[in-house]
Structure formats: structure tokens, C-alpha cells
Amino acid sequence: MFDKNLKLTRRGVLGGSIAAAAGLITGANIFSSSASAASKKINGKKRSIRFAHLTDIHIEPKRKAPEGFTAALRHVQSQKDKPDMIITGGDNVMDLLGAKDDWAKVQTDTFKEIIAKECELPIKYCIGNHDTWGWDKKNSNTTGDEPLWGKARFVKEFGLENRYYAIDAGKWRILMLDSTHIDKKDVYTAKFDDEQYDWLVEQLKSNQGKYICLINHIPIMSAAVLLDGDNIKQGRWSLPDEWMHLDTRKLVDLFWQNKNVKLCISGHLHLLERLEYNNVTYICDGAVCGGWWGGPFHECQEGYGLFDLYDDGTFDHQYVDYGWEVK
After folding, report:
1. Residue 21: which H helix or E strand, with range?
2. Would you say residue 36 lies in a domain?
3. pTM for the whole thing?
4. What does DSSP say about strands 165-169 and 172-176: parallel, antiparallel, or unpaired?
5. Cα-to-chain-centroid distance, residue 321
6. What are 111-147's pLDDT values in tens digits?
7. Inter-CA distances, 156 with 85, 161, 163, 215, 250, Å
């Protein structure tokens, strides 16, 4: 999501070694299934993985965003039952869509420096709409021919193998997906492109012995989306195509054919929601930044999700308020 009232300006990046930050990000993208949290039994059930889901961080060197993100990372890592890893949910930086090249670099460098300084856990990244550089060509002053234009910048800066990929964790396979599709009318819309959908179908087909968790930025299915903004036009519900996946029916039918799909996790709305349909649970997991570092967004406090995935296909989720207050 994007607060249309935001005014983004350029500022210098925090001091320190950006090269070191980039190295730590790349090196941390490895999950060991022998991690202590995953080996525990909780209420008699063996845990495949415990991870913290930090979505909609929206980092920039303003609004005390670096201090807030630092507080969130420290809170995650101070958990008595420490997660095996951190997974981000997209919109890691404030906004690359309309950012000129130097301001885009400031945002990604700020994020990487904080990770290098504060994060000791392995970390994996999901891409969000605001992590995509230059789709708003007018404001970003781009042509579309730049080598890092679009999602290429995020993939390179954050050391990803691809914009979508998979993580194995015990009895589970976690599919990290890309919700954002370029749209000439509204800059972006929400769906999986054909290439990615075909990959998803193959992943489900070839991993019948695993439970499946999808993590992508924009909700595949949501009820909270109805409450985000003035969505009633002329006495009828009217939802923007950027707020929820347009291919929801197609995906619901696919999941119905693949009963091992258990959990779909998203962000984007900055709202907290749990919805169940056809034995699949859809969780929209709030926002680390709350209302873009200006306090809670509606009734949702700044926070992050903690997930425990068990070997029997069940899971636990809690949303953690890490105590950030606007000063």
C-alpha cells in the first residue's frame, strides 16, 4: 500500500560500511534445519520451523524509521524462544516506484546497513510493490531501459536468487512469491504472472509430501481489504485492483486441488487479519511501520508475526507489538 499524502525527500544514508551490509545479507540467506528452535517439541508436536515475519517495514532515513526497525529487530532477537530466521513480507523500503536513482540507493543502503549492524539471524526477503524501482516513470525520471529498472534492483541489492523461490523447512516448503504486476493505468496491480503461476503449479505437484506455506506481499484473499479506505462507490463495494489479488478464484481452485496448501501469509494492508476458506488460512500480518512510522494504522499497532510450523501440518501464529511509540 501507499499513503498518497507522503512526501518523499532525499537525505543522506546512515554512516558505516555498506559493502559489509551487502555481504551479511547475502551470507545470511541460508536456513539450517538443525537450528535449535526447529528441533523443539511444543505441546507434544515437533516443530519444523519458527520464523518471524516482518512485513511493510518501509525504511528510509526519516520519520525515525531506522530507530523503529532497529527496535523491531532487537525485539525479535530477544524472544526467549528465538526464531530460526526472519522472513520479510515486502515493502522493505519506503518507496522505489517513484524514486530517482540516488534516493532509491539511499533507501536500500539504509536498510542493508541496519541489517548488517543489528540482525544476527538468517533472513529471507519477499518483494513488495514499493520495492520495485521506477515503474512510476514520471516521478522516478526513468525510461525503463535502466539495467536495474523494475525488480532487478531489489533482486541484486538484496542478494536474491530470483524474485520468487522456495525454502525447505522440515515437513514444510515455503514458497516466496511476487504479487506485483506492472500496470500502465495504475502503476501496478496484484496477481501472479504466467511464468510464476506455472512455477507454483509445478511446486505443488512435485512436493505432495510437504505442507505448503505461501508468502507474498499482497493478500490473495482478504476481508480487511473492505475496511481500507472509502471502498463503497454509488452504494456498491468497489475495491482497487492493487489491494487484493485479481487471480483469487484461480488460486483458490488450485489450492482446492492441492490439499497440502495450508497457509498463505501477506502484508500490504498494514492491517491484522486471519481468514479461513476451504481449509486454507489466510493471514494479513500487520506492519512493522504501523501507519508509515506515524503511529498505529487504524486499530493495528506496529508489530510483527511469529509463526511456528509443525510436522503434522498445523501451525501457530501470534502478532507481537514490539512497543514502538512515536516520539
Report:
1. helix 18-27
2. no
3. 0.88
4. antiparallel
5. 17
6. 999 999 999 999 999 999 999 999 999 999 999 999 9
7. 21, 9, 10, 20, 31
Measured CA to CA, the distance from residue 66 to residue 87 in angstroms comes to 18
Is residue 8 one of the residues assigned to a domain? no
Q: Using an 8 Å Cβ cutoff, are 76 and 41 in contact?
A: no
pLDDT in tens, 149-208: 999 999 999 999 899 999 999 999 999 999 999 987 778 999 999 999 999 999 999 999
- Alpha helix (H) residue ranges in 83-217: 101-118, 137-140, 152-157, 194-206
Question: Based on the structure, what is the number of domains in the chain?
Answer: 1
Name the average pLDDT for the chain.
88
pLDDT tens-digit profile of 75-97?
Answer: 999 999 999 999 999 999 999 99
- Helix ranges, 28-133 (H): 65-77, 101-118
- For 168, the domain range is 18-30+46-321
Alpha helices in 129-288 (DSSP H): 137-140, 152-157, 194-206, 248-257
- Is residue 64, in this structure, part of any structural domain at all? yes
Give me the pLDDT at residue 36, please.
53
| Mean pLDDT, residues 13-30 taken together | 34
- The answer to whether the beta carbons of residues 244 and 218 sit under 8 Å apart is yes
Residue 35 placed within a domain: no
| Domain CATH for 65 | 3.60.21.10
